[in-house]
Amino acid sequence: MKKINRSILSVILAAVMMFTAAVPSFAAGDLLWEHVWNEEYNNGVILFPGSDESEMNVSWYSATESEPKVIIDEGIVIGDDAKEFKGYSVAAPDGDFANKVTVTDLEPGKTYSYQCISEGFESNVYSFKTDADPNVFSAVYMTDIHTSHDDANPNGIKDTAEIFNSTLGEAASRKRISLLLSAGDQASEGYETEYKGYSSALGLKSFPVATTIGNHDRKGIAYKTFNNVPNEREKNMVASYIGGNYWFTRGDVLFLVVDSNNASGMDHRDFAKDAIDANPDAKWRVMMAHHDLYSGRIPHRESENELLRMIWGPIADEFAIDLVLLGHSHYYTVTNVLYNNKTAAPYATTMTDPAGSIYMVSGSITRPRDDDEIGLNGEWIGFANDPDQRIIYNILDFTEDSVTVSSYYKGEAEAFNSYTIVKTSKEGGHPKQILPSFFDSFVRFAGTVYGLFNNIGVYGDLKDAGFDVDFFEVVFNN
Q1: How far apart are CA 415 and CA 433, in angstroms?
Q2: Edge-to-edge strand order for the sheet containing 402-409?
Q3: Which residues pair with 107 in a beta bridge?
Q4: At residue 27, does pLDDT exceed 70?
Q5: Cα(382)–Cα(379) distance, rounded to whole angstroms?
Q6: 408 closest CA partner among 371, 362, 376
């Protein structure tokens, strides 16, 4: 009976998510979020992608260490013949334990119900649906969500999490979402409490989120235990001390998720090569990082962007990346088709077999900007919106031959911008891949040396902030 009641509760919670998205300004919406928050905050059940569409990674917090498990069954009720998948616990920074489980052998076009169980804890029963055709799916792309601890506002995390929850709910009300792509700064101070707030969003119990590491995520050490990602690279010369690059696939799409805080170009190129060698038949290659590279919207960051372009541009060129999703600047821009840091073709609403990569930056969910300092680099930019402090999210519709990106202001019915990339073959219009130049190789080496010294400074900052960290783990190893 308990399982049936929890299944009914999961249906109610899903309805709450949709209703909250529809009426975020009403008192009723506030009341519903209060219920969601009380149900979901402490344990932070959240889905992450598995290595491919047949897997799902699950994570949650608990007060004690145990052998966690996920029980899962087809349909909306967990029956006696449900499957059980066991995982492991790791110590989290605030004294909790993060539980990590991988569910395998998922079949296309099925609805699954699941429950997370660890010592002293049984979650609500949640559900997700797999895609009938793994090559046809929709993803949401957001960035700089900034669930935020605020000394001046004891409800800061709760309030910013509510904005995220309602924005995600609005996106999910447009069509069935299979994946959230979150391009960094999930948190503002890197606290475990902020990641619990982030994980409270109801959509993240129904579809997985792929997160990358933002500069604010690096302010603490909680990100490393918060996530549960596949194919994470561990052999690096320079540490990504709270998590490394990783990859996963959905149908014909290879997603490369990278830490742009880490300047080690040698590590990043090796990662990209290994991921692509492991997935030679992937037609689409999508890279996600945090830092804005090309828009030039914030002039005082241009020196930082120039260095990052020298590292990431040649990687995107060499490995024929179709689309690069970014954040950090909080300003919406889409570049022309770029190759070798130059415009290879102009931005258009339909770009067929583009001879290079398209780079996109979206606005922040809780910290949209309106800055008098704003500039724009017209050499690279194909489309930019007015910086008018509005929340932006994007829906990416993937098919075998195209990806369409539609961008929305929260609360508006129609997209303010939409463009489509079409590929008529696996190679598309990308130039023939060539070996990196001596200059590119030198930049990658110099970036690796810089990354080591930068991590020494990071170690000092973490110690000053009161975090218990090991010097060699922060500087050299994952």
Answers
A1: 35
A2: 209-211, 179-182, 137-142, 392-398, 402-409, 417-422, 350-352
A3: none
A4: no
A5: 9
A6: 362
Q: How distant is the alpha carbon of residue 210 from its chain centre?
A: 4
- Strand blocks (E) in 87-245: 88-91, 97-103, 111-118, 121-122, 126-129, 137-142, 179-182, 209-211
Q: Tell me if 358 sits within 8 A of 383, measured CB to CB.
A: no
Cβ neighbors of 219 (< 8 A, separation 6 or more) are: 187, 188, 189, 190, 465
Give dist(CA 103, CA 189) in Å, integer. Answer: 31
- Rounded CA-CA distance 240/244 in Å is 5
Which CATH fold topology does 137-422 show? Purple Acid Phosphatase; chain A, domain 2 (3.60.21)
Residues whose CB is less than 8 angstroms from the CB of residue 194 and which lie 6 or more positions away in sequence, other chains included: 147, 148, 149, 157, 186, 187, 188, 222
pLDDT at 272: 96
Please say whether the beta carbons of 287 and 271 come within 8 A: no
Please state whether beta strands 137-142 and 121-122 pair in parallel, antiparallel, or not at all (unpaired): unpaired
In angstroms, the first-to-last Cα distance of the chain is 44
Do 265 and 444 form a contact (C-beta atoms < 8 A)? Answer: yes
Q: 229-271 pLDDT, tens per residue?
A: 999 988 777 877 788 899 999 999 999 999 999 888 889 999 9
What's the confidence (pLDDT) of residue 455?
80
SS3 101: strand
The whole-number average pLDDT for the span 393-422 is 97
Check residue 374 and give its pLDDT: 66
Which residues on neighbouring strands pair with residue 180, listed in sequence order? Answer: 140, 209
Nearest CA among 239, 259, 160 for reference residue 462: 239
Q: What architecture is the 2-129 domain classified under in CATH?
A: Sandwich (2.60)
Report whether 24 contacts 36 (CB < 8 A).
no
Per-domain residue ranges of the chain: 2-129, 137-422
The alpha-helical segments, DSSP class H, found in 319-437 are none
Task: Give residue-wise pLDDT tens across range 368-405.
Answer: 876 656 666 778 999 988 767 889 999 999 999 999 99
User: Is the predicted pLDDT of residue 30 greater than 70, yes or no?
Assistant: no
CB 182 within 8 A of CB 210: yes
Q: How far apart are CA 455 and CA 240, in angstroms?
A: 9
Question: What is the number of helices (H) and of strands (E) in the chain?
Answer: 9, 25
